[in-house]
Amino acid sequence: MRIVYTARKVNLKDNFKERVEKKLSKFKKLFSEEAVVNVVVTLEKNRQTVEMTIRDRAMVYRAESTQPEMNDALDRVMDILMRQIRKNKTRLEKRVKTGSINDIIADIPAGEEVVEDDYKVVRTKQVMVKPLTVEEAILEMNMVSHDFFMFLNADTNDVNVVYKRKDGGYGVLEPSV
Predict the structure, then answer these.
(1) What is the C-alpha separation between 101 and 103, in angstroms, rounded?
(2) Cys-Cys link to 76, which of 41, 65, 107, 111 (CB 3.0-4.6 A)?
(3) CA separation for the pair 109, 87 (Å, rounded)
(4) pTM for this structure?
(5) What dotted CATH number matches 2-105?
(6) Is 26 helix (H, G, I), strand (E, B) or coil?
(7) What is the 3-state secondary structure (H, E, C) of 95-129?
(8) Alpha-carbon gap, residue 90 to 117, rounded angstroms
(9) Where are the domains of the chain?
(10) pLDDT exceeds 50 at position 54
(11) What is the second-level CATH architecture of the domain 121-175?
(12) Angle, to 10 degrees, between the axis of helix 70-87 and the axis of helix 134-143?
């Protein structure tokens, strides 16, 4: 895992970088050596924002938190990332080393309820217009917390868009001739 730090209006101390590396060491089993972690720390008045984006192959995880203290924001970001991994455990198990997710999830305090979401396409639109399946595109869209995601459909070799509907379902936009 390669970690890239960006500091905006703040100087990052070595102990913060060590803390980030220690917390990310939990995730090393889940990601390949080519994974890139972007850590952006921004200071605005008395608030400190930590943004973390992990990119590995087609997977993207992103979390952001603003707190009065930088370390508190980092802890919150790591909690958000862990929840994303737990939420998508079954789909991620297919892509990562066996047992890795169970080892990491075992570290999470009991009592947090995980709701497994089924990705149900409830509407399909046709429009004119990174090879992924629809489920992978929905997973990646959820990881970056966006309402839509454009991708090259690995099954049809067409550009598609998945989007989140207001009723909680998912939709797919497909090109028409």
Answers:
(1) 5
(2) 65
(3) 15
(4) 0.58
(5) 3.30.160.100
(6) helix
(7) CCCCCHHHHHHCCCCCCCCCCCCCCCEEEEEEECC
(8) 10
(9) 2-105, 121-175
(10) yes
(11) 2-Layer Sandwich (3.30)
(12) 160
